[in-house]
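Q: Give me a backbone?
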Amino acid sequence: MKKHKGTVNRLFVLLAGCSAFALANAQVFTPISTSGYNADVIANGIGTVASSTTGDVDGASYALVSRDFQLDSSSTPLEWGLPVGGQVVAGDRTYQLQDYSANNSLQLPNAQSNGTLSLMTPLAVGKLSLLGTSGSGASTADVVVQFSDGSQTVYEGVQIKDWFYGSNAVVYGIGRISRGDNVMQQSSSDPRLYPLDVTLTCSEQQGKVSSVKVIKTGGFGIVNIFALSGSAPDPLVSASISGESKLDTGDIVQLTTAAAGGSWSSDHPTIASVDNTGKVTGHAAGATTIRYKQAPCSSETTHALTVQGTVTISTNLGTSAQFTVGRPAQITVSVQSAIPTPTVPTGRVNIELGADSCEAILTNGSGACMLTPGSAGTALSLTLSYSGDPIFQTAQDAQTADVLKVVSVVSMTATPNPPIAGESLTFSVNVTPGQAQVQAPTLKAMTKAAPLPTGMISFTDGGASIGSAPLIDGATTLTVAAPTTPGTHSFVATYLGDGFNAQAQSTPLTFTVAAAPVVSASPVPLFDTLWEKVLLSLLVLGWGAMATRCRWMH
């Protein structure tokens, strides 16, 4: 009933008592920044407990302790206690404790004492979770959730367990310390902090929470609230469903959503049932609708499902399929029911070989299409995907196939033939595409002019390279100096291949290189002709006359 305008009473339900739906929709709790804490009950830093705290947890002089607490600087660091920094993580819950050097507990020692934690920023939530405990005995409290529009909801009868021995604790074994004599008490199980959860209604989740008020209503303990966390509000629309829409009797398929948890149901579970994870089992032929509800406040999403027959796929390729690159081949495919039935599958089969594909339209369960491989390779993936129809489900079959290149024919001539050592020798080469390597009679290769070979020709003499040249329109020439060593030489032109044509060699061109002609030098006689003799006589007379004149002058 309403306490006053905008106030609703609701019994508090412990986490352990949550419905199966809520458990299946476990939400993530994240810290909410709040103010309003009135006591420092966590010892930290260096110094006495009394100097580090303003009060105790239980009225008996015991406080909680942080792992960084030291009585003095020489004290051994603690290996237990609350984490330094104050962040507590327990499964899907994260709480942020308040500053250990400031007020860090909303403490309510007496009946009807109360305090309010104000949110730094009002926000919409699906659930709220207070982290608290009760010192020196259990307590009962009312939790009042207040909204920014002035309305509020009261959760009555919240049970807060004693900080020792209670069940469903999310923090435990943190130890305690006496404010009177600084004596520490450490236990692997106590003291304990508990989650105090409240779930907002669907309409409340559309508003923004501004504060949470806690009123102690009963019990002999001292209530201590250390932190507030919350989960996101339920989405208005459930996440969409992904997965198979058809399955065979006895098959199991997994439907998925982008969200975690949620509830699943089937309109006709005798046709197909679904578990709480979205796993569907087909039981009988027919149609049903699978429904998913992401959270209590979310609308349902649906997924139409048909339980249908299965098929087998076969082709004319056999187990060792071979194709020739660049040449179309006809593939015949047959789709049959795995279980004999008068109904013949219809639809289409998509055939993929690497990056190339074709589609066969089924007529009376069979069809054909032309596939032209665009690149060569071995053990390529060949996939056949059946589209399915209203009766038969989709199917896929895969195998490997080889795509071979065309065998090229290389012919070579030389001019002159035979050559003379050291003189120019010109080779002329032609490369023509030969026959396809695929000879399987069941694979109907269609006639198609192969592209002229491209690429490079490498020339060798007895295995030693003598040069290379590019093919232009399937032909090339190379001029080199003929070997300087006379004798028999064997020349080979090697085509290095391209994307369509395989590497190939010419038949060795063998001939004898002739030796270059040798020019002999004969001795030339001096002054052998008549005029040479006359010239010699004149020279002798001239030199003699010159010698006589010189003697006369002297």
In short: The first helix runs from residue 20 to 24. The helical segments are 20-24, 49-52, 530-553. The chain has four domains: 7-231, 246-307, 311-404, 408-513. The first strand starts at residue 7 and ends at 11.
